[in-house]
Amino acid sequence: MKLRIAALAGALLFATACGPSDESAPPAHTAQNLNEQFDAAIQEMSMAYFSHVPEAATQIGMPEETVPGTSERMMDRSLDGNAARNQALEGALAELSSIDVELLSPDRQRTHAVVTTLFEGMLSPSRAVDYGTTAAAWTAWYMPYPIAQNSGPTVDIPNFLNSQQPVTNAEEAEAYLARLAAVRSALDGALESYRHGVQAGAIPPDFIVEKSLAVVESFMAPGAGQNAMYLSFTDKLEQAGLENAGDYADRALQIIDAEIIPAYQKIADYMGEIKGAAPHDAGLWRLPNGEALYAAMIRHMTDLDLSADDIHRTGLDEVNRISSEMDKLLRAEGYDEGTVGERMQLLNVESRFLYANDAEGKEQLLDDVRAMVDGMYAELPNWFRNVPEHEVEVRMVPEFSQASAPMGYYNNPAPDGSRPGYYFINLRDTSLHPSWTLRTLSYHEAVPGHHLDGATSVDRDAPLLVKALWSNTSGEGWALYAEQLAAEMGMYADDPYSDLGRLQAELHRAVRLVVDTGMHAKKWSREEAIAYMVETEGLDEATSTSEIERYVVWPGQALGYKLGQLKIVALREEAMKALGDSFDIRDFNQQILDVASSPMPYIESTTREWLAVATN
Fold first, then answer.
1. Which range of residues forms the domain containing residue 112?
2. pLDDT digits (tens, 9 = 90+) for 27-77
3. What is the pTM (predicted TM-score) of this model?
4. Among the listed residues 160, 50, 61, 55, the one whose alpha carbon sits nearest the alpha carbon of residue 418
5. How many domains does the chain divide into?
């Protein structure tokens, strides 16, 4: 592998993202040599990352010749594969970290901040424990349990092939089939790592094993001919109008039937074996070195070294503040009896807010969501200096993964415009989406939330590695700030119930601070966490259960939303105070958005630099 990396390093060209030094830089020969050293280190890290996480290359539309073979391979999720990935990334990170960042050109300083901060976070869990998988979810997140109900290869691989792997010509069809043939090895490797974790004492809770098994069984149930990957591939072949499409389809069917479904069956068999022995405790505290692992996950998912106790207290404070706002609005609408949570539960079941749970009702819901997104687009020029040209497409979450998928999620567009951004909404049951919840979900996942962030990021003049990375805290913090911004735009002015939906969504993020730290640091049970969520914010029990179980397998991830939003709001207040009458919301929003995928410490420092210039 080292020889391959050395031979290919020259193919990764990042000169467009690393311009000349500014006039205040040290003498040219010193700066030039250091910048060249840094560029070489970025190439090494890029080769290490994309070689070991090839799906990331496809997601950002990286040309195949940059790192040959990435379009045909899957990430190696075996024990040896995980060790090799960690070793390659640690070595490249050490080289980057040894460079004196103060002497780099400004654009390189940003790249250094993004790459070193995010890879330090990504690798920190594997330094604490010898189980779990690095980059197991969303091509970046460490997972303590390599296979779960909402992520890992049994969920992510089908979703990735369906929505990310292109098939527009014969060459891409062959690449798809090659990657499809690599799925069995990826699944077998993940099962090996899963077994290792169980044997090391990191067995998932019984309810996670049960839900993960249900997803695996749901994938296998229709048979190869009705498998989601097969149907998606045949749709792509039809759209591409390829000759011999039937031959390609037959080859895919054979791979799915003879290799992939049996690999899923092996996973199902093992989960069936361990289900009875799995404990019920939800938190990381019970795992080997679990306290250190949770501290590492906080670092991984927030970019900061924060204590669980401090986060828990922040959550409780925010719960109290937001609940008070909701109480006033509920009373104004005639709901004045019971707790905030109890009154919100009444709104969950009122027929005037519900869509029919059939094909026609789901299509109407999707049409309404698309109209909300279009309406927001009309407002964006009044709040931002630049609006990216990439489109966002609203889609339904695939049926096989609906039972454990989030209510909504987003995938970035391809930088070359060949693929739009995708906003997926989970329609397993339309009653989970009362109409008053849809605005906020759409503003978060699409515009001005994740889509503005993602589309701006992929258009940024930066190394491909930077475009492939994403800070959980700044990205989710931005999307939560976008919900608040929508209210300030007046998008809820004539819709008090949707404004209650916005406040409930913000309350939900505050509750996350409480329950995530509650389970992983304070030994709360799954049931305690679910009850707190239902009683405090009024979510239905089914949604609360899905959410809580998500935090069990993605420890720390849910902390990023509220912590990131609080920091952005604090920075805006700082800017308003410093700039006074000259403050322009368009300038501030653009300042944050232009670096919104960067780690929060970098956003904070660059915003203060912008303020320093603006106030001189």
1. 1-52+78-144
2. 444 778 999 999 999 999 999 999 999 999 999 889 888 899 999 999 999
3. 0.91
4. 61
5. 2
